[in-house]
Amino acid sequence: MQADFSIECGADDEGLEIPWASEDGFAFYRDLKRNPEFIERLTEVQQYPELARFLRAANFAESALQTAKCDVWFTTEIAPEEEIFEAAGKFGSYVDIIFASSGSRVSFAEHEAAVRKFVELLNLVPEMPASVEFLVRRCLFRDCDLEQNGFYITCYVFGFGNDEIHARRNWSVALSALGKVFCRERDSSLRSE
Description:
Blueprint: E1 2-8, E2 15-18, H1 43-47, H2 50-58, E3 65-75, E4 89-99, H3 102-105, H4 108-122, E5 130-143, E6 146-161, H5 164-184
Helix pairs in contact: 2-5
């Protein structure tokens, strides 16, 4: 499995506001850490049950992390750097991750240390047609009348295969490996010393 991270905190880079809502109001932020019963109600989880295990691991009560947003898809569009997998398609997902602690949410150093540690641990996973990429981005946290600038992590997981079934299987294995990394690192060891 390939794992890497990058920093996207420029003025033109994508960002997130929490809480968020889609324009039609159909999709919106749910605090899955405080309300884990919502995990099973997510449309993505109903279509892709593998995602539920990951969301439970990432939102575990004692975890330093929690999730903010997710999506899942299959595509036959393969980027040039993904051609090494020699696959006709990829099954992918993203999950936006935030620190549970408001103090950690504003620490760039903690975000960078976390993604470095995740990549280090994922690089120990045996070779397989899958990739994980972490992006550290800017986030605006809104709580009632208070606003706080901070950061979040977008985590992309891709499984590659010659058809959707095989790509999904590889995605599922990669997502499970990432869930185990989150379970292992769910305490303050994520934070920089």
